[in-house]
Amino acid sequence: MKIATYNVNGINGRLPVLLRWLEESKPDVVCLQELKAPDEKFPLQAINDAGYEAIWHGQKSWNGVAILSRGSEIKELRRGLPGDPDDTHSRYIEALVNGVVIGCLYLPNGNPAPGPKFDYKLKWFSRFTEHAAGLVNRDLPVVLCGDYNVMPTEIDAYKPERWVDDALFRPETRAAFKNLTEQGWTDAIRKLYPTEVIYTFFDYFRNAYGRNAGLRIDHFLLNPALEGRLKAAKVDLHVRGWEKSSDHCPVWIELD
DNA sequence: ATGACTGGTGTGACCAGA
User: Fold this and answer.
1) How many separate domains does chain A show?
2) Among candidate residues A200, A208, A192, the one with its CA nearest the CA of residue A156
3) What's the predicted TM-score (pTM) here?
4) CATH number, domain at A42?
5) Which of A64, A88, A122, A180 is an S-S bond match for A58, by CB 3.0 to 4.6 Å?
6) CA atom of A139 to C1′ atom of B6, Å
7) Distance CA A79, CA A86 (A)
């Protein structure tokens, strides 16, 4: 079973690239972030024509998450993160697909920090951690994947010293990620590649992709019931080099 | 240190992203 995550940065603007990558990569399940489209503008027909069914939680202009599946029914478990009825952002959707609980998230960026956006990020993180606590020790396999907007350690950033005051790398942010994983979650990429330099995002500025000046911010967390089934994990770096690419790369795992 | 690039919105001297 191949599960992918991809921050598309606008699903309609990105549709040709998304379809090309789906055709090439053929993941069984795909978590998408940053749809930047309201529910009624989700391109369902094109997704269906590519062989996928979908559930999504859109929003005008910003945010938006979706789960796609090829060949297996998607049973939606939740849309929206619990814990704050006033939170209007579409940043979380969760489903059961082929016996695996899939949580698809788009954690807030949080810049500029400090400030209200950073406060929102930490608050969202704390709500997410609380929700994850109810999932980690389930007998069911659970994967929480998406754009975490966190570089967990220094090797996850090109020139980490430039990011120490940034919302993606501040001590509070890294501590929140550590606090989450210490519930018992396994970072799939780091389980298979503990020390390699691996990036999932490259800024549109300054030829970041060409210079390999990236960040690792898109992650797969696996609960103990799933960890032993991890066979492979990879970043589809070449997709970032395509015309009209997202600034994020697709990332995927393969399970037994 | 700064600004560079992109999508969406709507035509902004825009916002937000990371």
Assistant:
1) 1
2) A200
3) 0.97
4) 3.60.10.10
5) A64
6) 42
7) 14
**Does any strand B atom come closer than 7 Å to the Cβ of A204?**
yes
Could you check whether the bond before residue A114 is cis, i.e. omega within 30 degrees of 0?
yes
A57 touches strand B (CB under 7 A): no
The HSE-up count of residue A11 (CA atoms within 13 Å, CB side) is: 31
Q: What are the pLDDT digits (tens) for A63-75?
A: 999 999 999 999 9
Mean pLDDT rounded to a whole number for chain A:
97
Q: What is the DSSP string of A146-170?
A: EE-----SGGGBSSGGGGTTSTTTS
Q: What is the largest CA-CA distance in chain A?
A: 46
**Strand B neighbours among A 74-113, CB < 7 A:** 108-109, 111-112
Query: b/e for A82-119, b at 16 or more Cβ within 10 A?
Result: eeeeebebbbbbbbbbbebbbbbbbbbbbeebeeeebe
Per the CB < 8 A criterion, the answer to whether A143 and A3 are in contact is yes
Closest protein residue to B9 (Cα–C1'): A61
At A44, the pLDDT band (50, 70, 90 cuts) reads very high
Give the range of the structural domain holding residue A229, as residue numbers without chain letter.
2-255
Q: How far is CA A183 from CA A55, A84, A128, A147, A233, in A?
A: 28, 22, 12, 19, 22
Q: CA-CA distance, A80 to A69, in Å (whole number)?
A: 19
**Helix/strand/coil percentages in chain A, nearest 5:** 30, 25, 45
